[in-house]
Input
Amino acid sequence: MRCTTCGEFLKEHEGACPTCGAVVSQRPVMGPMGVEVRSCPRCGHLGTGVKYFKRPGHMGLLLGISVCTYGFGGLAYYFARRHHRICGECGLGWERARIPRPGFAGHPAFVDSGSTGQGGRGADFSSEGSLPRRGVGRRVLGVAMVLLATPMVAIGFIEFELGAIAAGSVFGAAGTGAIWWGLKAREDRRHAIMARLQRRVLLLATEKSGTLTVTEVAASLNMSISAAEKVLDRMDDGLRVRSDVTDEGIIVYEFPELRHHPSLESGSAG
Output
């Protein structure tokens, strides 16, 4: 491949010409079925997205609308969303996903086949494993059980039927437990996503000698600025991660252990 400006030979996936500095247009990475590979700005998931109704919560909503509207609302909802895609990890609408530029962590074109996944901008994060489930199905099931239990208990009190009251109470308790279980699964998933992002930030901080800004994290990890700021604020404990404002008004996040690691190693060697 040659640079279109000066004719210099370029390495594969090189983003700019080393001779004249001209930006080289990059072809998007294509996944199965010719779908473009993108990166989720919320959780950093890299992929092609999944169909909207693959998510259990969306299917439950479709069924609920269909029942309440004699099927007409369900059909309208299905035809309005049948071509939409969402993030396979966090469920964000895939139209908000970004085309990952070469060089950011996890880009398939820059994952070295011999990478150990322990650092570097081309580190392979596929070894992190899958995230916990969202618990959507449990929450939908729990709400359905509670809705079923409510009229049973009401009828039992009206008709003085102890059996209906007992059955409704059991269904209601089971439904409440299922909702709590689903909410706990959602919270566990959020913690797992945050922990994964924090590991990536730590790797980036190691490369940047222990200091980072929000825009550096957003640009390097292909995240939105608000998401990058949220991750850094969660990591800021005033001890291992500290934030400070420079004279220019820039918020800088400092990782003292990473900043002083070279001097500590030289002191140990001495």
